[in-house]
Amino acid sequence: MSISQSPDASAPVNLMQKATLIDQPWSPRMVAEMNDYQFKVVRIEGEFIWHSHPETDEAFLVLEGTLRIDLLDSCVHVQAGELYVVPRGIAHRTAAKGEAKVMMIEPRGVLNTGHEGGERTAENDLWI
Amino acid sequence: MSISQSPDASAPVNLMQKATLIDQPWSPRMVAEMNDYQFKVVRIEGEFIWHSHPETDEAFLVLEGTLRIDLLDSCVHVQAGELYVVPRGIAHRTAAKGEAKVMMIEPRGVLNTGHEGGERTAENDLWI
Questions:
Q1: Coil, helix or strand for B31?
Q2: SS3 assignment, position B17
Q3: Which of A73, A83, B21, B113 has the fewest beta carbons under 10 Å from its own?
Q4: Which of A13, A77, A81 sits opposite B14 (nearest CB)?
Q5: What interface predicted TM-score (ipTM) does this complex get?
Q6: Which residues of B are less than 8 Å from A76 in CB distance?
Q7: Average of pLDDT values for A58-72?
Q8: Contact (CB<8Å) B59/A34
Q9: A89 in the Ramachandran plot: left (φ > 0), alpha (ψ -120 to 50) or beta?
């Protein structure tokens, strides 16, 4: 289920419930907005592609499972209930053994593949 | 414990662990930054004062307990794992029966009392 408009903005958003509604991994779906920032939930499974966002930091909050963020010279494991911010311009690759459910926070218009493009670029601005 | 500088930014932030370190309610402490936005954890207990932030939306993610957000003509109960965004300019009052542990997200420089000022205005930019 994806919709192009925000659901009822006057109700709190249950993040896990939203993440569970997404029918496939690597398909971020918007759940809320704050000024020009977007809150997205995403299911992560396996490995993504290397990319960076030269213009913005990117925040990850893990809802369930363990998110691995590969950096060029290290990797970070982010557990449920933990927050991690990838600084702007830093090459990174998200991954999970099994599945991780994650909320991302970033400015409107940021693509999941940064400036890499390609077939794994997800459509933006889809709500769930 | 409060510090004036960010702890190790290369490690994930365990939000509940941070919230547990705060020694009193209504004392937001920074745990991370993303561009010009700040992530703060706060313990909420009892009722705050009515205020608004004319210049910005304000996001609340509940970590533990139930956060009540009073609005002029309604109130919202936000449970653990839920996100709620108070739109800019909307008068609101946060409250909790017992205690709620909450993460807030807002632009750097936003005061907890908005433009109301007064004795309940917390110092900004304290990390934990």
A1: strand
A2: helix
A3: A73
A4: A81
A5: 0.93
A6: 10-12
A7: 98
A8: yes
A9: left
Q: What is the pLDDT of residues A21-32, one digit of tens each?
A: 999 999 999 999
- Which chain A residue is nearest to residue B54, measuring alpha carbons? A35
| pTM across the whole model | 0.94
Question: Taking the domain A25-107, which CATH number applies?
Answer: 2.60.120.10
A96 CB-contact burial (10 Å; exposed 0-12 / middle 13-18 / buried 19+): buried
Partner-chain residue, chosen from B34, B76, B77, that has the shortest CB–CB distance to A59? B34
d(CA A93, CA A50): 5
Q: Which residue of A has its CA nearest to B104?
A: A34
| Nearest chain A residue (CA) to B83 | A13
- Please check whether residue B5 is in contact with residue B77, taking contact to mean a CB–CB distance below 8 angstroms: no
How many angstroms separate the CA atoms of A108 and A124, rounded? 9
First to last CA, chain A: 6
